[in-house]
Amino acid sequence: MSSHISSDTSAPRSETSPSDHLRIRDAEAADTMTVAGLHSESWQSAYRGLASDSYLDGPLAGEHRKRWQGLLGDNPEDAVEKATRPAGFIRLAEQDGALVGFIALWVNYKEGYDAYVENLHVRPGLRGGGIGRRLLQDAASCAAAQGCRNLSLEVLEDNAGAVRFYERLGAASKETAQEMLGDRLLDYRLMVWDDITKLTSPESS
Questions:
Q1: Per mean pLDDT, which range of 21-25, 70-74, 134-138 is the poorest?
Q2: 85 in a domain, yes or no?
């Protein structure tokens, strides 16, 4: 599965950055619906004009609720999918107690790479304030502590801002592949950090 990432790629803001007041923590079962809601809100904002409106405003929210119930939920019917969840973690960014972003990283999930970011999303309206960067750096540090030496993720090929954002953080742009986004076939660009410490070092801030 490709990582459908809507990240913190807007131009930096001159006022106090939202990332200055973040709390980052592990996700819990009680966060399931909040994470699913932010996931859908992020897609509806970032992918408007790429995926069809009928998909973004229709089945998307239900798909995300089902996905996150399987990854985080504690209902018995979710047990099978949760048991087969890849090794890794889901980390949340909160500001004044409210969810403003999240990241899902899996270990030894994508062939050839130790760590793979499947999701990285920041609440629309707060992008460009460093929240996505903080989440990515936090996740990279957690992955490095588990022995991961490299990290990869995928972004839409047409999202030039996201490609530049990750390149500024030290990623190398690799090959493209096609995958469905809702009801449309789109190109995704693989972004790779061959050395995960490029994200964990102070120079990546």
A1: 70-74
A2: yes
